[in-house]
Amino acid sequence: MPSADPRVFFAAERTLLAWIRTAVSLIGLGFVVARFGLFLQLLDQQAATSASHHVSPWIGVGLAMLGAAMAATSSWQHIRFRRTLGHDDLPVGYRTGPALVAGFGVSVAGLVLGAMIVF
After folding, report:
1. Is there a contact between 34 and 56 (Cβ–Cβ < 8 Å)?
2. Residues 6+ apart with CB under 8 A from 7
3. What is the mean pLDDT of each run of 10 residues along the chain (119 residues)?
4. Which residues are CB-neighbours of 9 under 8 A, at least 6 positions away?
5. What spatial distance separates the first Cα and last Cα of the chain, rounded to whole Å?
6. 8 exposed, middle or buried (CB, 10 Å; 0-12, 13-18, 19+)?
7. C-alpha distances in angstroms, 71 versus 14, 33, 64, 115?
8. DSSP state of 92
9. How high is the pLDDT of residue 115?
């Protein structure tokens, strides 16, 4: 019987980390959009106009929540995939948990940031 190839696991982990990187980008974009709306409100107050930009914080929250959901979903998907691998497919002595901690940590951070934008 041929030995299993740990490159399959490493490819799955790279995919997870790419999804986490995308989630972090969405969360950061959500923060920027929300704060840019605050900046526009300050400019409107200085110009004494009655224009309102109240949609920016909600778009920012939506992007942050989307990023949080993406990180959680991709981490859960990685767990499901990892369960299908045999013991020989996992690298010897390699800790498989840190990428999942990062994924779920980014998810929690996105939820907290979204809540902070709202309140």
Report:
1. yes
2. none
3. 75 97 97 84 67 78 97 98 88 90 97 92
4. 82, 85, 89, 90, 91, 96
5. 59
6. middle
7. 14, 20, 11, 17
8. T
9. 94
